[in-house]
Design a protein that fits this description.
Elements lengths: L1 E5 L5 H10 L3 E5 L9 H10 L2 E5 L24 H5 L4 H13 L5 E3 L9 H17 L5 E7 L1 H4 L2 H11 L6 E6 L11 H15 L4 E4 L16 E4 L27 E4 L4 E4 H9 L3 H4 L26 H17 L6 H24 L13 H22 L4
Parallel strand pairs: 1-2, 1-8, 2-3, 4-5, 5-6, 6-7, 7-8
Antiparallel strand pairs: 9-10
Helix pairs in contact: 4-5, 7-8, 8-13, 12-13
Length: 398
């Protein structure tokens, strides 16, 4: 499974560094965070670093006011009702020009977040795909499936999506999923297992799957043979939030804590907790394993007090994406059974480590994975009951 870089605020230099570090990769451009007259130049820089480009149209909530997106020619300026009924021609035509301009790897087609999956929804998706054939006949198509949290809680609607996708003439899908409630790490096993089922069902149709706006909680998508998850620096790129796509002019600047990601614990810690871990001689437990050591976080483990090392937001984001990239690379094994065992073992390892650290008071607060271990474990079990046999048979063909 690959890690794609989900672009957002303050991501341009980071993404180019990441491409250099891993000798290439794929970035998903966020029109919301780059001006229309700058996008071609940036795409050229990405291509020079052996990078591939996709453009996320971000048409998830067209009724919300979006100051930056509305600067793009493709963004609908009026008559959203017609758009919601399938009149996407102008949007798709202008998007095809934008994709051409940036020499995109494939055409990521727009879609509005679905609150209900029915024949009308499917009809509109097919209209969008047909429109793409008209305006970009030579491109590969990856269609967006954007789902509300209500849809994700309903297994029958997920089954319906899989059935509908079988009718679509596309190379792949780009799945984005609202979180239930206001949590970064999702505490509902059904939400996780339904996304896994959706991915597996579409993979079995031999279509590519990308899960966007993802965090390390979705590393288990590898068990569904997902092609890639996409993630970024701030939480709004690891967690699909409706309000992220709405411009609110009086936003207060926030004071943000710096978080260090401990990959083997699947948890993130504020730096003062690393200080106390050092005091108790436990810092080596939080250090990345050899395969994930990197220049961004090595300063934390060189003998100084972590809070005095200058490890800031910039290093924290680069370290997170470096580790997540490595975890994605190693997340799929030769067989379904081996891959499942790997992911169960990953949770067991994290559990032992978190238990030991937790007893000493070293916790990741709202980014601690302790409460999520059982969520992902249950999701993997439920998924395994449904998909163990077909995926075991088809693993190497997916």
């Amino acid at each position: 499974m690959e890690l794609f870089i989900q672009m957002g605020h303050n991501m341009q230099a980071l993404a180019l560094e990441h491409l250099e570090e891993f000798d290439g990769g794929t970035i998903i451009i966020s029109p919301m965070n780059i001006l229309p007259n700058k996008v071609k130049g940036y795409a050229t820089r990405v291509h020079k670093k052996k990078g591939k480009v996709l453009v996320d149209p971000q048409l998830y909530y067209p009724r919300q006011y979006q100051k930056k997106l509305s600067q793009y020619a493709y963004w609908p300026k009026s008559d959203i009702t017609s758009l919601e009924m399938g009149q996407f021609d102008t949007v798709v035509e202008e998007l095809s020009k934008l994709n051409n301009e940036v020499e995109a790897e494939a055409f990521l087609l727009p879609s509005i977040t679905a609150k209900k999956i029915d024949d009308l929804w499917n009809k509109i998706q097919k209209i969008i795909i047909e429109s793409a054939k008209k305006y970009a006949p030579d491109m590969k198509y990856i269609h967006t499936i954007s789902l509300s949290s209500d849809v994700l809680n309903d297994e029958s609607q997920i089954e319906r999506v899989i059935e509908y996708v079988e009718e679509w003439d596309v190379e792949g899908v780009y799945i984005v999923c609202e979180h239930p409630e206001r949590y970064y790490l999702v505490d509902r096993p059904l939400w996780v297992s339904n996304i896994m089922s959706l991915v597996a069902g579409i993979k079995r149709q031999r279509k590519m799957t990308i899960v966007g706006y993802a965090s390390h909680q979705l590393l288990c998508m590898a068990l569904a043979k997902c092609d890639a998850i996409a993630s970024g620096n701030f939480l709004n790129l690891r967690w699909f939030q409706p309000e992220h796509f709405e411009t609110i002019d009086d936003k207060q600047p926030s004071r943000r804590a710096v978080w260090y990601y401990c990959p083997q614990a699947l948890s993130e810690y504020k730096i003062p907790f690393l200080d106390i871990a050092k005091r108790m001689d436990l810092l080596d437990r939080i250090e990345p394993p050899v395969t994930m050591k990197n220049k961004y976080s090595e300063m934390l483990f060189n003998g100084s007090l972590p809070s005095s090392t200058g490890f800031g937001e910039k290093e924290a984001f680069r370290h997170y994406l470096y580790c997540l990239h490595k975890q994605c690379q190693n997340s799929v094994l030769e067989t379904y059974a081996e891959t499942k065992n790997l992911h169960v073992l990953m949770l067991e390892t994290a559990e032992q480590l978190l238990s030991g650290l937790g007893k000493k008071g070293i916790k990741g607060q709202d980014r601690d994975f302790t409460e999520i271990l059982d969520v992902n474990r249950a999701a993997i079990s439920a998924f395994d009951m449904a998909y163990h046999f077909p995926l075991s048979q088809e693993w190497n063909d997916l």
